[in-house]
Amino acid sequence: MKPRTPGFWLIVATVGLLALLPIQALAGMSPEEVKMFTETKVTAEKGNAQAQSKLGECYYHGKGVAQDYVQAVSWFRKAAEQWFVPAQFQMGLFYANGAGVTKDEIEAFAYWNLIKENHPLAQWHLASLEMKMAPEARTRGRKRAEELIHENESKQVGKPWNYADEYRASERERLSNPRNLKVLLEAEAEALAVSPYMKSGGYTGPGASKELQAIVQSFDFTSDGVSDRYRVAQQQMYQITMMLQREWGKGSVKESERESAETMIKAHKGDAAAQFVIGKGYYKTSKTRDYENALKWLLKSAEQGNRQAQAELGECYLDVAQRSSTPEQAMIESAKWYRVAAEAGDAKAQYGLSRVYNKGQSTEKDTEECVKWLRLSAAQGYVPAQTDLWHKLEDMAYKHTPLTQKQIQKKKLSKTDYVDTTLIWQQETLEMLKWSRQLADHGDTNAMNHQGYAYHEGKFVAKDEAAALKWHRMAAEAGDEWMQGLLWSLYSTGKATYFDPVPVDEVEAMKWCRILAANRNAEAIYAIGNCYAEGRGVPQSNVEAYAYWTASLLRWGSGPRGDQTELAKRLELRAKMSAVELAAAQKRSGEILTDLQINSMKKQAQFNAKQLQESLDYR
């Protein structure tokens, strides 16, 4: 008898597992899902943290196995005990929502507090939870976080790396380095200053407010006790922000420019411009939108012929319709006011009217009318209309893609039955490329990649790999992380999806790897360590290799792959290094983690600044 292969025994195990599952558990599940569950379970039972987390997802979503929240929590907990950061974040969600466990905000706080420096979403959830919790509850949450550290330490005995000790040591080192604290405090002040809530109390526009800037400028980064003073300064900045949030939440007429006495008096006297400001203020700048007052004042202004108010009224009615269980009347009003302003040439209203036709709720869904108004708006340079027109034409061109001769024969279509759509398809595709190019020229990364695909495939342009690579590089340089990853792969291996093969270029590969790493990509951070260890694309350096490996492992806990391979490589290098080299590497890893944190804060600040500017546009 022939020896059985490992694949044979996997099939046997899968069949055996299927026999144990209840019939209803298999309903609607594909064989691929069941196979994936079986393979994941085998790996998870060997102690792989990433597989344990993935198995928890299978139980949570009912993929390949009957849905079971209790089992989901059990497997996520196993991964969390190995300091696998995504699993720790998920445990916080379980306790916050009471899924598979008794709802417990203290426990949720503890899990998120453990990983707040390593997981952006954990920071956000923790901040939201803190606002609802009493001071004594937050203290209990921090104490519980320390207990979790000790509990998990006891389960890590005999393993080659004690995460908790090293994480605490790394944080002590990182937060005692004046260089780290200075750049952190400056970045935190900038991020807080452009929060949408910072519209009063010394707000000076998209930059640091006077109060926050004063704290940074007066901070002493040189004398002893810098770490403790940093925490005090950090707390002061958050207290200022919380105070301004409370002021914003009151919606005070006295402090709000949109409801200032002067503007309100003008509105009551019938001034259309003032009525528009008041109405848009109720609609766009209230913390909780007041649709009743927004519609009241916008209608007064619109009826006097204020075109901005007419367009805004159409948008407000459309928003109301989307939130209503009976949207018909609101959609009719939306279409009515959008049309008045659209026919007068307002680009925003033309775009809004196209959305109403696209919804097809108060008017017959009419693609021609939708595209007509999109074209009019796009021609005036209204970017949302240009974007929607590009995608609408892409959908239309796909539907009109002509059949091949083989497809015609397969469908058994006669000459009278078959409608040749080649000309329509060509026209729509050419127009789609035109708008895609216009958006690409104005910095839209999706449009840049679309241009790259067109040149790669030779789609209505001459096939040109150099032009394709140029557009894809532009998208990556503009911040498209997916394309950054493809370029990293292209230059490190010589091949990647959407690209013809190129010679391996280790220096160029390192450039894109660093860009990805700056976005907190743990795999890229670890790969930089590999490059330093082997001297690929950079000078060989044990200190830099160890520092990047440490930063990646502290970022993810069990390493990017969730196994012990990364830990073993690091321990092997550690044994070769002197005490001086290890101290330098520890300091350097703290700087790397700080720079990652600052980059994340800067991106959040840019997002906040954009939101803040949008909220002030009504003035």
Describe the structure concisely for a colleague.
The protein is built from 31 helices and no strands.
What features would you describe in this structure?
This protein has 619 residues and is mainly α. Among the domains are: 130 residues, Tetratricopeptide repeat domain (Serine Threonine Protein Phosphatase 5, Tetratricopeptide repeat); 73 residues; 148 residues, Serine Threonine Protein Phosphatase 5, Tetratricopeptide repeat. It is built from 31 helices and no strands. α20 packs antiparallel against α21. The protein is globular. The N and C termini lie far apart (84 Å). The N terminus and C terminus are likely disordered.
Approximate shape: globular
Please give the number of β-strands.
0
**Could you please say which CATH topology of the domain at 469-616 applies here?**
Serine Threonine Protein Phosphatase 5, Tetratricopeptide repeat
Count the helices. How many? 31
How is the main sheet built?
none
Q: Approximately what portion of the residues adopt beta-strand conformation? A: under 5%
Q: Give me the CATH architecture of the domain at 469-616, please.
A: Alpha Horseshoe
Distance between the termini: 84 Å
Uncertain stretches of 5 or more adjacent residues: 1-25, 157-161, 197-208, 248-259, 615-619
Tell me the name of the CATH homologous superfamily of the domain at 469-616.
Answer: Tetratricopeptide repeat domain
Structural class: mainly alpha
**Mean pLDDT score:** 79
